[in-house]
């Protein structure tokens, strides 16, 4: 199991988003996780639309879609439309997140 040595290596220098240090850190983390038997896939952040654009209702719908308890939104929030629910389902499918049966 990875230990403090990995954290020390990652904490050596700042990693501005999009910079070469961030890319090196992602690569290092991917190599460590792969060596431990995990499958590592970098995906575009398209699925972050669920949080960024759909807010609480989107997060709750996504949780429901993957089999966790999201539940209904409370007033004054409105539930997602049928079209938005379809978008959530598609974004989760593209991100290869397991959908509940």
Distance linking N and C termini: 33 Å
Can you tell me the residue ranges where pLDDT is under 50 for at least 5 consecutive residues?
A: none
Helix percent reads 40-55%
Q: What percent strand?
A: under 5%
Number of strands: 0
Major pleated sheet:
none
Tally of helical segments? 5
Give a nutshell description of this structure.
The chain is mainly alpha-helical and 101 residues long.
Overview features:
single chain; about 100 residues; mainly alpha; 2 domains; about 50% helix; elongated
List the helices and strands and how they pair.
Elements: H1 4-11, H2 20-35, H3 49-52, H4 55-65, H5 82-94
Helix pairs in contact: 4-5
Describe the structure.
- By secondary structure, the protein is mainly alpha-helical.
- The protein has two domains: about 5-35, no CATH class; about 45-95, no CATH class.
- Helix content is about 50%, strand content about 0%.
- The protein has helices at about 5-10, 20-35, 50, 55-65, 80-95.
- Helix 4 packs across helix 5 (about 80-95).
- The longest helix has 16 residues, at about 20-35.
- The mean pLDDT is about 85.
């Amino acid at each position: 199991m990875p230990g403090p040595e990995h954290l020390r290596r990652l904490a050596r220098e700042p990693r501005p988003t999009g910079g070469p240090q961030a890319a090196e850190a992602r690569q290092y983390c991917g190599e460590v996780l792969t060596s431990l038997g995990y499958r590592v896939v970098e995906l575009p952040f398209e699925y972050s639309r669920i949080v960024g654009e759909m807010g609480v209702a989107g997060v709750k719908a996504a949780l429901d879609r993957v089999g966790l308890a999201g539940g209904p939104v409370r007033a004054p929030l409105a539930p997602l439309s049928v079209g938005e629910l379809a978008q959530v389902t598609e974004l989760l499918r593209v991100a290869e997140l397991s959908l509940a049966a």
